[in-house]
Amino acid sequence: MAVQASTPGTNPSWLVFALSNPTDERIVRWLVAPRYTLANSGVFRPELDAPRITAVTPSLGFRPEPLKSDRADMFRLNIEPGQTVTYAAELASTKVPRLTLWNSNAYQAKQQDRMLFNGVLLGITGLLAIFLTAIFAANHRAIFPATALVAWAALVYFCVDFGFWNKLFPVGPDRTAVYRAAAEAGLAASLVLFLYTFLRIGLWHVWIKTMFWGWIAAQFALIVVAIIDPQTASGLARARRCCSAGVGTVLIGYFALRGQDRAMSLIPSWMLLIVWLLGASMIVFGKLSGEVVVSGLVAGLVLILVLLGFTVTQFAFRTGGGSVSLGPPSLVQMKSLAVDGSGTHVFQWHAGRDVITVDSDIEKELGLDPGALNVTVEEFLQHMHASDRERFRLMLWSLQEKQGGDLQTDFRLRRHDGTYLWYDLRAHAAPNENVRLLRCVGLLRDVTGLKRSHERLMHDAVHDSLTGLPNRELFMDRLQGAITRAAEGQSNRPTVLFIDIDRFKNVNKSFGLVIGDSMLLTLGRRLGRHLNPQDTLARLGGDQFAILLISDSDPHHVATLAERVRRALRTPMKISAKEIILTASIGIVVHDGTHMTSQDMLRDGEIAMLRAKRSGADRIEIFNAAMRTEDESHLPLESELRMALDRQQISVLYQPITRLASNQLAGFEALLRWDHPTRGRLAADDFIPLAEESGLIVDLGSYVLNQALEQAASWHRVLPRDRDPLFVSVNVSSRQLFRQDMVQEIRLMLARESVPKGTLKLEITESLVMENPERAVEILTWLKAYGASLALDDFGTGYSSLSYLHRFPFDVIKVDRSLVSESALDGQTPLILRSVVALAHELGKEVVAEGVETQADASYLRSIGCEFGQGYYYGEPMSAKDVAALLAALASHRKRRQRERARAEPDAPSGLEIESQSPEPLPALPGPSTA
Description:
The chain crosses the membrane at residues 115-137, 143-165, 177-199, 211-228, 240-257, 263-285, 292-317. It comes from Methyloceanibacter marginalis. Keywords: Membrane, Transmembrane, Transmembrane helix. This protein is α+β, with helices and mostly antiparallel strands. 50% of the residues lie in helices and 19% in strands. The protein contains 32 helices and 29 strands. The strands form six sheets. Strands 21-22-24-25-26-27-28-29 form an eight-stranded mixed barrel. The radius of gyration is 54 Å and the shape is elongated. The protein starts with 12 loop residues before the first strand and ends in a 14-residue tail after the last helix.
């Protein structure tokens, strides 16, 4: 047979098949080729609605008659009896369609059944979309329009897929592929919008919100793409629908694990959606096929929509937004809600049956079996703490006697693990003359946390928060009790050890408060090891501890204990790979019958401790009555010192320092004196320790520095020197050196006075720098860089650490007067003095010797190469006025010599240049008398 294509200019595909009629009657069949089927349609660029067969040509007989249909290409085939007819079908696409032969009646019946099924699905979806849209008017929540949009998108897709779209609107079947792709894109976009709205993604970070809105916009943009390229739009919609399901699964799982109600309520619907997508994927890829499978998939989508609508509606009304109420709640309902919200539990006691009934929630809290507390009173008391049973029993008996009343108490109930919980009971029994009908109803509330907080507050009120030791209040209470019992002869005489850690503030400054607290904990544990159970160790505050001994009053044993305590505190502690040794000053006071109060006895212990501290660190002092008189004069002296400092009544004297080689005045040392109105002139040793204890040493040091630099500036104006200018030495205390703003203060003073470099010489004791060598090196380096000269004072009396000596940037080593004054008495002292001078020279440092009293001392020091001498041989400390007179005399003497030299040598340079080129020594300073 010869077949010609009906469409010119094409190269169509052909499908050839043969049909045979073995019967005696003519057979009429309908050949059906569906234009679209979801099965095996593919994901990317799927085949949408398109014609399948253009024409069918038989080998004999009449040409098959085309039938009109919007969903398939249909032809009526007539086969005569006994004939076999070959048909050549011209295909409209390269893909071979699925061909079926139908009996006309059977096909029409099947189509009617399908239309009925599709109508039911359309009706359910339409009603759900209308319901969700309409309910938004009563409950203005965004989740309703978002869910309604999903239902409307599904309704549009069903209308296109079921063929109703062409019946509703006058649109040709050739545009069905565009509508189908747009409907799929709209369904995918509405699903993403629903996920964004229901999970409230907009409340998250701005970048997440922006990303989701971009995703939603891209989804809706596919609807526009469907007009241009339906296959591409449909493929992207199917792929993105799977991506949306994956992202939604992750978000729902994340929110559900965090306890979000919305995510947890959406889990069943979303799981069904995941299953539906898996089935759709298998159908699209051709793993499943058949009319039943496709119909089930469509019905599954409707079921998902119904479940989503139910979830949204239930969640919206369950959370109270727009909930339907038939009227205001009754008083009983409000009381019930109040009880549930207050966290209390119902308690009931039936006096007639002697039975107690409590809420089952209490049994759960206690870990008991259900009904374990719904028992008689005696059985209920067995669950109660032994200390609370009798009191509770008496209260119930009192209610019976009074035939009603209120019951307010708290008690403890035992848990299954043996611990107890506190409960507060507030109950009332209505008056009733018949005791057997008496009922007591109330509320139980768990107050365990409140009770424990109260216990902690009570403990913290009388105990130190850091060490857990008794604080001052508890110590004073126990001490007062011990004094009272001792006065009544019921116990031993109490003894108090007052302990203060020496220089503990330096530890906090050097290592920080955290290390300081750790050391205090260690000290507390060390002290506690030496006490008996009846004794008391307390932390009075800061670095002060106190021990109350009542177990033993033997003086020998008390002294032995104090010595053990002192040695225990001296045991080194390793901090940051360094061993720190702390010492303590200990004052001991024994009750002698004169101490009436604990304040008196503790005050005497503190007086003894202060005596030990003033006598030197690491000492023990026992109180005696003479110390009290001395301490009473301590406070007035401190007040007078503060007043004298405010009024600038502290005088600064200056003792000359001479350069031994030329017998020339080199500088002065600033010394403090206090002309007390009743005590006379006090030397620095008499009030400097008091200033250090009271904190006045910082102000006193700043005062001395200011006075000394002002005087030095005036000296340079009176007696200027280009080389070897006059200097002034000022002693620096520990509080000054390690003060944070000390370096900046000295820098500003030097800049203000504009004195030559090296004019200010700071004298720092050897013991001071050894308290914190690393910090001292850093501060001394800064001071030297800013123009101050440094002198190591009292060398030979402290550590004399040669390993550290080369690290400190000192310019001068000041030898203590003890090495000089005993040089004539001790044969070894000159050797030591000579060694010190030689060592200083080896280190490149000059030496100042204190205590030069005689000509012999000066001669010996000059012979061993000592640079400077200071002592009464060269002059006593003098006032600023006397220093000015001395310098004026020296300046006048120098000018007179310059004039005489100028007359003797007319061609010589000026006197100032003569001194600078060949200096001559000035006359020697006066001897022991003042200048």
